[in-house]
Amino acid sequence: MQIIESINEMQAHSVSLRHQGKLISFVPTMGFLHEGHLSLFEVAKEESDVTVASIFVNPAQFGPNEDFDQYPRSVEKDLELCRQRGVDIVFLPKKEELYPTGYSTYVCEESLSQPLCGVSRPSFFKGVCTVVAKLFNIVRPDVAVFGQKDAQQAAVIRKMVQDLHFPVEIRVAPIVREADGLAMSSRNSYLNEFQRRDAVRIYQALCKGKELYDNGNRNVDRILAEIIHHISECRRLRVIYVSAVDKDTMKPITRTMVEGQTLIACAVWCDEVRLIDNLIL
Ligand code: AMP
Fold first, then answer.
1. 146 in ligand 1 pocket by Cβ < 6 Å?
2. 8, 103, 115, 221: most buried, per Cβ within 10 A?
3. pTM above 0.85?
């Protein structure tokens, strides 16, 4: 497994791989890898000759009062996991090289980025789109793999790729969950044992909503109310949003729910830890 830190080296290497006719797949991450990330590597490997993963905690996607400094980091362990899971190249850019002093160019998707997480994290998707666009220009992948865990992010990236004509195919891999249902996330490491026990209620609440749907209820408000009620029963949890949107456009579902097209997404504070989860009806 190769580890590349320099932007020029990564770019030159990708160009040379492409000249050799190799298909490159790419999985961008912020590290502190768990099975969710590793599942993306599996999808990536099936799709290509060479799999590149990046590990970079992107300052541009954190708000001023968010957890950039505390965000968990474990590069050595991550590299070992990448090695074990057959990643060919890990790109580890330096903050100073990606965002040198005087850096001033950003990519903004202005529609799908607005609702859901866009309300409470107004510059989050600008940061995500910017770093992903930069990474695409450096890694030059044919295929890039994202997780359904961050459903809005995946939709925004698809839109950016379409709007800006990036020659990249986007794949979205299913959410990997802990045995009790909690969606895996690097931020779960912030949870103490009591918070961890309560956090599972978020997924259970989404399942309560799905149960109503599966029993024939097609009233979106009723389904959302059920989910909010179930989360709110736990005193440690605070709902930031629970919404039903079209899974591709992120537009709110008001009337007809088309099977397989409705994304029920939520963000919840578990004390001071912000968690997100979703499912598709
Ligand atoms: P992050 O390191 O949190 O920026 O995540 C990197 C990629 O892994 C993103 O595309 C996430 O959607 C994806 N990911 C994170 N957690 C999970 C999970 N539990 N299941 C599937 N994909 C995930």
1. yes
2. 115
3. yes
